[in-house]
């Protein structure tokens, strides 16, 4: 064994110089990270949601607090081309703009009341201090016209929630005051969601020929909306083939709405009460959205096409019409019968003998939509109300409406000679 010799190798640089260099390098790395990381983190933090026919509320940072501004006010909403409704909402729209923040954020809302009556804002489903809950009279004074109130709290959960008034809510909600409040998880989800649509379900009674909803109606609604729009005024929901897609539905109307997708099954992944445990998820094609709650479903968009997405209560995919049309299905109404009925009922028109599919464009009052409408590539779709089209396409470079689906040859139902 050779005895160990003491090392006489001299360092390349002296310890002192090395320490100095190390310190400078560390400072540089930290400075660089401080410059780059916040942008990187901000950009990567979450996939923003899409509010079809709507928008997201901008915020400003003030000493680490996200500040938002909401103005409750009368708004004009075009339900579909040719029909404008005098509604109430926030920041010029119904539903109000979607609020987006991240779990752990401190948020501050300045709420200004420009309505002709007092109001308040309740943050539906959100865990917060009692005095921020927004039930006027119970948790805070009412916000009188032209007053501004401030709400501030820290977000302790993630999920899809809502905001709406808790002050004369029968009128204020019937008039369209509501919006989404999406809290993204602090730790990004795996697998990542590529596209997340939020859609508020609502119902209205607008007397044909008028523009102001009647808030006193309790069951007889005649307009059923996705984000306060009716088909064909609803934007298509455009998705790239293969994307993981999430749809959140919120319901502050008087009825439940069973929302149905064609061509797919989805799984309910969360409510406004929290995530559904994986073991409790099951495939569905319809999600019933009860009054006063949100439902979030998820699927992978692997089937190309133009797929109907609608409420399954058949009256909810029709627009305004009076309900006193007699049921004449299967009843032969000859011209002479029509003339005789007209003697008793002036203005009577024979109609509906073989269904109402051909009655879409019957004479109607001003500012009233046809009861069923919207043209598709093969003719009228004969629906209105809570209806839109999910458009799934391979190779999309933008989420603009890609037009109608071009079916591969031999994949469209076709007419044949009937066999005897
Ligand atoms: Cu419905």
Verbal overview:
With 420 residues, the protein is mainly beta. Helices cover 11% and strands 33% of the residues. The chain is built from three helices and 23 strands. It has helices at 15-44, 169-174, 335-344; strands spanning 60-62, 65-80, 83-90, 99-102, 106-113, 122-124, 148-154, 159-164, 179-184, 195-204, 223-226, 237-240, 244-251, 257-261, 266-271, 274-275, 283-284, 286-289, 293-300, 305-311, 373-376, 379-383, 387-393. The strands form five sheets. Strands 10, 11, 13, 15, 16, 17 and 19 form a seven-stranded mixed beta sheet that branches. It starts with 14 loop residues before the first helix and ends in a 27-residue tail after the last strand. Residues 224, 255, 257, 311, 313, 316, 386 line the site of copper (II) ion.
């Amino acid at each position: 064994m050779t005895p160990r010799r003491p090392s006489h190798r001299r360092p390349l640089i002296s310890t002192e110089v090395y320490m100095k260099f190390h310190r400078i390098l560390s400072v540089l790395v930290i400075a660089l990270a401080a410059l780059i990381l916040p942008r990187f983190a901000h950009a990567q933090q979450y996939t923003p949601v899409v509010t079809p026919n709507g928008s997201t509320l901008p915020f400003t940072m003030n000493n680490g607090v996200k500040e938002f501004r909401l103005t409750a006010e009368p708004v004009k909403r075009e339900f579909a081309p040719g029909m404008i409704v005098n509604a109430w909402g926030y920041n010029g729209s119904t539903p109000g703009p979607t609020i987006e923040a991240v779990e752990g954020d401190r948020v501050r809302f300045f709420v200004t009341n420009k309505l002709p009556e007092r109001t308040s804002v309740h943050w539906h489903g959100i865990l917060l201090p009692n005095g921020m809950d927004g039930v006027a009279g119970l948790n805070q004074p009412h916000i009188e016209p032209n007053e501004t109130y401030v709400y501030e709290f820290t977000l302790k959960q993630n999920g899809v929630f809502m905001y709406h008034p808790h002050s004369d809510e029968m009128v204020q909600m019937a008039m369209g005051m509501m919006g989404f409040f999406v809290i993204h998880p602090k730790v990004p989800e795996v697998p990542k969601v590529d596209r997340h649509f939020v859609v508020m379900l609502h119902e209205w009674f607008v007397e044909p020929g008028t523009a102001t909803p009647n808030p006193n109606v309790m069951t007889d609604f005649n307009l059923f909306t996705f984000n306060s729009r009716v088909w064909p005024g609803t934007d298509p929901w455009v998705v790239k083939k293969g994307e993981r897609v999430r749809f959140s539905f919120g319901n502050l109307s008087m009825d439940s709405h069973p929302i149905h997708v064609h061509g797919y099954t989805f799984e309910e992944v969360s409510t406004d009460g929290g995530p559904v445990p994986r073991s409790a998820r099951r495939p569905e094609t319809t999600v019933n959205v009860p009054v006063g709650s949100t439902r979030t479903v998820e699927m992978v968009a692997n089937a190309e096409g133009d797929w109907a997405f609608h409420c399954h209560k058949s009256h909810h995919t029709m627009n305004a019409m009076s309900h006193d049309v007699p049921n004449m299905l299967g009843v032969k109404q000859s011209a002479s019968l029509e003339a005789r009925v007209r003697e008793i009922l002036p203005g009577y028109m024979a109609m509906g003998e073989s269904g109402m599919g051909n009655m879409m464009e019957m004479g109607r009052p001003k500012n009233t939509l046809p009861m069923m409408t919207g043209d598709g590539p093969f003719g009228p779709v004969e629906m209105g109300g809570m209806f839109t089209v999910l458009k799934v396409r391979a190779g999309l470079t933008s989420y603009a409406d890609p037009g109608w689906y071009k079916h591969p040859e031999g994949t469209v139902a076709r007419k044949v000679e009937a066999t005897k």
